[in-house]
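Section 4.2 – Deliverable D4.2 (structural model, holo form)

The reporting period included a commitment to supply a predicted holo structure for the target in complex with magnesium ion. Inputs used:
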Amino acid sequence: MIEQNKAPLLEVKDLVKNYHDGPNARNILDHLDLSVNEGDFLTILGPSGCGKTTLIRCIAGFEDYEGEILVEGKAVSQPGIDRMMIFQTFEQLFPWKTVKKNIQYPLKINGITDKEELDRIAEKHLELVGLAGKGDLYPHQLSGGMKQRVAIAKGLALNPKIILMDEPFAALDAMTRNKLQAELIKIKEKENATVIFITHNIQEALVLGNRVILMSKNGEIKVNMENKIPKPVTPASEGYGEMWKLLNEALWEEDSESGAVSE
Ligand SMILES: Nc1ncnc2c1ncn2[C@@H]1O[C@H](COP(=O)(O)OP(=O)(O)OP(=O)(O)O)[C@@H](O)[C@H]1O
Ligand SMILES: [Mg+2]
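Output (C-alpha cells):
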C-alpha cells in the first residue's frame, strides 16, 4: 500500500519565546521545531524550568511568541476549542457546579444549548472516563483521581483536535496513576485523539507515548524518538530498558546539578 503523505496536524517552526522579564531575559524556547501528526501521543520530558509548560502554553494560544505554530496550516494566535489544556492541579473545576454542569459549561459557551444534546454529551464522556452516573456530584465529593477524570471528560467533550496535558497525573498516588494511564490510552484510541503530554517520569513517557521528546535546559529539543514498543508497555517490555537508559542519561546530563527525576 502506498503511504499517503499527510501534512502534520501541528507544526512548530523556529519557535522563540522570551518573557522579556528583565535586562538579561533569555530565550526560554530557542528556535524550536516540532511536528505532530494526527493520532500521535507525544510525551515531553525535560529538566524543571526548561520550558515544557511554556511550549504547550504557546500551542494552546495563551502566550505570544516569535516563529510559527500552525494547526492544520492555520497560525495559532489565541486559545481555541481545537486545543484543550488539562493541568496538574485538581482544582480545574467550578466547585459550585456539579460534575455534569462543569462538563456542560464550555459546551454552552460554545453554542450548544439543547438540553438533551448537553446531557448526552456529558453522559458519554463521563462513561468514557469511568464515571458513569456520577454527574450530580460536586467536586468536593470527588477524589483527586476522579477530579482529573472529570477534567479529561470536560476537555474531550469539546472534541478538540489536540489535547494538551501538563503533568496531569503527577499528584496522584502510584496505583491511581497507573489506572489513569491505562484509561487514557484506551480513550485516546477510541476517540483517535492527538495528545501532547508533559511528564517528569520516564516510565510514564514510555508507557503513554508513541513518540517521546526530551528538551534541553536551553529550550531546544535534544532527543526526539519514536516509541515502537507494543502496548501495554511495561518495564519488562522488549526495548524498554534501552530507551529508558538513553532518556535517563540525557536527563542526567541536562539536570546534573539537581539530578534526574525518574522512576
Ligand atoms: N510568566 C512568566 N514570566 C517570566 N518567566 C516565566 C514565566 N513563566 C515561566 N517562566 C520562566 O520560563 C522558564 C520555563 O518555565 P516552564 O514553566 O515552561 O518550565 P517547565 O519545563 O514546565 O518546568 P517544570 O518542569 O518545573 O514545570 C523558567 O525559567 C521560568 O522561570
Ligand atoms: Mg511545567
